[in-house]
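B., you asked whether I could sanity-check this one before it goes into the benchmark set. Here's the sequence:
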Amino acid sequence: MHWHLHNKQKRNLYKPVPYLTHPSCPYQLELLRLRAQHTIHIIPSHLHYSFKAPRSAYQDRVCPHCFAKATTVLGDEIHIICHCPATQGVLQQFTAKFQGLTRLLDLPPFASFTPDAKTRMVLGNPPPQVPQKGLKGWITEATPICSEFTYALRMHVTSLLPAVVDMSSDDEGALSSDSHDDFSPILLPPGFQPASTPPNATILVSL
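And here's what the prediction gave me:
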């Protein structure tokens, strides 16, 4: 921070990132949530909390879709977006849109990018080929496509995992790694027993 405040370029430390500066973009919050590792069921490597202690190490957060087929591979962003047979179809559906985006902004063809560069691009990061003066065009044209892609990815993954527990690092009720997993049954006081039938409305009188 000392270097930034005293160098001649006078950089602004609080300048928003490009994918947040679009004035009004559908599904823009979806993109922010994915990049902030909020919707952890989409990218397995984003899992910060686990139901059993100790929490899983980063390298052990494998892709559940590949694990079901006896293949153990880290479920990070690059794998889920570009390589996983169960989820890479979403990127294939958006390839034409990203190809049109690269043509519009005079960038190399989208197909020529590496998986790492494709992942960065579809998540809102402008490629190095985008000059500073072309950043406004990138924000206007790319952010809506990236946000729509993120929404489609979430909907697709959710359809593959119908029972999803959405827990994030900023949820106050999220379970931490030191949570207790051993639950004891509720013991009735002496002289009490469960009712065989539910009580009717006349019995349930508020005190």
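One thing to flag: The longest helix spans residues 135-160. Otherwise nothing jumped out at me.
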